[in-house]
Amino acid sequence: MKKNNPIKILSFIVILATTISCSSSQKKGPRGMAGQISEYKVMKVKPQSTTLYQEYPTNLEGIQTVEIRPKIAGYIQNILVDEGSFVKKGQVLFRINDNDIRATVRSAQAQVKVAEADVVAAKINLNKTKPLVEKGIISKFDLESSESMLKAKEAQLAQAKANLANAQANLQYAIITSPTNGIIGNFPYRIGSLVSSNIPQPLTTVSNTTEMYAYFSMNEKEFLTMIKGLKGNNLQAKFRSMPAVSLILADNSVYGEKGRIQTASGLVDPQTGSVNIRATFPNKEGILRSGGSGLVRISQHVDSVIIVPQNATYELQGKHFIYTVGDENKVHPTEIGILAGNLKNTYVVTSGLKPGDEIVVEGIASLRNNMPIKPKLVTQDSSDDKKDSGAVVNN
Questions:
Q1: What is the pLDDT of residues 208-242, one digit of tens each?
Q2: CA–CA separation, 186 vs 202, rounded Å?
Q3: What is the average pLDDT score of the chain?
């Protein structure tokens, strides 16, 4: 009779114990050790009111920006203001060297005197001719010649006076003044530069920045949504009934003054499908400058919308999903529609959820379809993810 090997028997017992242990572990599944069901925070959604903020990139310009160009040719003799300084209407900005112009004025003055003398001489000659014609000493033709000569000399005098007036005007143009109150721009030309009326760049610009225009655009659908429901019989009246808009500066700070939307372009750009819009902001402290940039923030109050934390959602193939709690506390992924744009911490849900639905708000990475959970109900206001009073849409 063949004896059993103790070593083989011991190995068999170890393998059998390992197999039983693995089988037991597999049966526990997602419930964890000893069949326990994990606890998850759950929120019951309800309609609420909130304020949405839509933001649009904008370029800033003063309400009036004037290019300063010389009307005459000459060398810059003086620059009497500094770049970026505030100037008043009529303040002298530049002086063009006027030596040649002054010489032209003196020459024109002399030509006027010569022409005046010629007119006097022609009148004297005419006065002498008239009695001689009456006495028949000379012919009537001589009288007509004298009259024509006087008219020619008077025309020459008028031309000389016009030349003088033009020279004097050019002398005034040598002093360049500001046409309005505003901020001086850059100086591409310096003292000694030869300038004229056809230079490629202006001497500088003067921007009236007491108020600022903020130009931005939105697509046609957004524009129609914005004006829908506003009071007024026309577009201007609707704009007047709109809430004030805010300006986000380049450093992400909020500008201290509110603005108003005033105008919108009459045409939709066929290339981009966008509508150009202009808002106006006061600028009493001069903080805003022409050429600046920022974001125009438009607020929109909405009622009866469902808001969920972003952390409670996940994205799959461009679609957004959220775990809802169903019968027997089993979770199911539910597709939801959200308001387009990048929101801060929350999503405004447009479809997929209804008031009273329960959603999982934490730990969704460990959830699976039809997985049972132990729900811990939290209120919507106490959700850790609800930190903002409104949602911001960046366009």
A1: 999 999 999 999 988 988 888 788 889 999 999 99
A2: 10
A3: 86
pLDDT of 146 above 70: yes
Q: Which residues contact 98 (CB under 8 A, 6 or more apart)?
A: 74, 77, 171, 174
pTM for the predicted model, two decimal places: 0.62
Write the DSSP assignment of 71-99 as a string of letters.
SS-EEEEEE-S-TT-EE-TT-EEEEE--H
Q: Are strands 175-177 and 92-96 parallel, antiparallel or unpaired?
A: antiparallel
Contact between 309 and 383 (Cβ < 8 Å): yes
Task: Give the distance from CA 23 to its chain's centroid.
Answer: 66
Q: Torsion angle, CA of 197/203/208/212, rounded to 10 degrees? A: 110
Angle between helices 99-134 and 140-173 (to 10 degrees): 160
Determine if residue 341 is left, alpha or beta; phi over 0 gives left, psi from -120 to 50 gives alpha, anything else beta: left
**329 neighbors 372 (Cβ within 8 angstroms):** yes
Cα–Cα dist 254/296, whole Å: 10
Name every residue whose Cβ is closer than 8 Å to that of residue 334 and which is 6 or more positions away in sequence. 321, 322, 323, 324, 352, 353
pLDDT band at 278 (very low <50, low <70, confident <90, very high): very high
Instruction: Output the CA angle 272-277-279, nearest 5 degrees.
Output: 150
From the CB of residue 246, how many other CB atoms can be counted at a distance below 10 Å? Answer: 21
Q: How high is the pLDDT of residue 193?
A: 95
CATH of 70-94+177-201, one of 3.30.460.10, 3.40.50.720, 3.10.180.10, 2.40.50.100: 2.40.50.100
Fold observed for domain 98-173: Helix Hairpins (1.10.287)
- Give CATH for domain 36-53+302-394: 2.40.420.20
Predicted local confidence at residue 16, as pLDDT:
47
Instruction: Give backbone dihedrals phi and psi of 283, rounded to 5 degrees, phi first.
Output: -145, 50
Q: For residue 237, which phi and psi values (nearest 5 degrees)?
A: -65, -40
| 366-369 LR contacts (CB < 8 Å, sep 24+) | 366/38, 367/40, 367/323, 367/331, 368/30, 368/331, 369/331, 369/332, 369/333
Parse the chain into domains and list their residue ranges: 36-53+302-394, 54-63+210-300, 70-94+177-201, 98-173
